[in-house]
Design brief:
Layout: H1 3-32, H2 40-62, H3 74-102, H4 104-126
């Protein structure tokens, strides 16, 4: 596999992840729209998805192999990384709001698991 093929595969995976997260957020918002009243934790969910969905769709479109975006520009790559990072972070916060809606304990279990996974992912990334 050549370097160009590997880059295109990576872009395809990023595309799928971005749109998959956005679709999950949209499905959640559709379900929340049927509720007569939202508590504070569900409002956190709505606000998180309100930010995450358009940001993830935009970053997904930018890395789609069919788009003619020049990813060679370092400023554009950095902006795309920042958008994807904050979109994903907003998604994680929104899902956390759902868990806190069910109970404080389930919310704290979600926070603990998220922090543990973030540390493990960081260690894998840095090779430590």
């Amino acid at each position: 596999m050549t370097s160009d093929q590997e880059e295109q595969n990576g872009r395809g995976i990023a595309h799928l992840i971005s749109f998959g997260l956005a679709a999950a957020g949209l499905a959640t918002i559709i379900q929340l729209a049927t509720l007569p009243k939202l508590d504070h934790s569900l409002l956190v969910t709505v606000y998180g998805f309100a930010f995450a969905i358009p940001v993830l769709v935009t970053s997904g479109l930018a890395v789609h192999p069919a788009t003619e975006v020049n990813l060679g520009q370092s400023n554009f790559k950095f902006l795309l990384f920042v958008l994807y990072y904050f979109g994903t972070l907003a998604f994680v916060v929104a899902v956390g709001g759902l868990f806190f809606h069910f109970s404080f304990i389930s919310g704290m279990a979600y926070v603990a698991a998220t922090l543990i996974c973030a540390v493990v992912a960081r260690r894998i990334e840095t090779g430590h």
